Automatic annotation (TrEMBL):
Bidirectionally degrades single-stranded DNA into large acid-insoluble oligonucleotides, which are then degraded further into small acid-soluble oligonucleotides. The lineage of its organism: Bacteria, Bacillati, Actinomycetota, Actinomycetes, Nakamurellales. Heterooligomer composed of large and small subunits. The keyword Cytoplasm applies. It comes from Nakamurella leprariae. One of its GO terms (molecular function) is exodeoxyribonuclease VII activity. This is Exodeoxyribonuclease 7 small subunit. HAMAP family: Exonuc_7_S. It is found in: Cytoplasm. Keywords: Cytoplasm, Exonuclease, Hydrolase, Nuclease.
């Protein structure tokens, strides 16, 4: 009997990224660090442990970017809603 590896299913919602010491303070800084992580992983030549550590950091940075973008989206929606309400008055 042949065993197949279980398939990982992607989460439907991105995991909330709790702030960690040393986290980038801006979306741009998180995005740039994430791009660096991806570049280092794509370049190869790393040990398995180094690759896993970078992968975990990349996942965290992606979640940080998602959180920061969600906050920005919420701010834009709030401003648009206030402007729309003002136009109706």
């Amino acid at each position: 009997m042949s065993r197949s590896a279980p398939r990982a299913t992607p989460p439907t919602e991105p995991a909330e990224a709790p702030a960690q010491q040393g986290d980038p303070v801006s979306y741009e800084a998180a995005r740039d660090e994430l791009a660096d992580v991806v570049g280092r992983l794509e370049a190869g030549g790393l040990s398995l442990e180094e690759s896993l550590t970078l992968w975990e950091r990349g996942e965290h940075l992606a979640a940080v970017c998602t959180r920061l973008l969600a906050g920005a989206r919420s701010r834009v929606e709030d401003v648009l809603a206030r402007a729309e309400a003002a136009d109706e008055d």
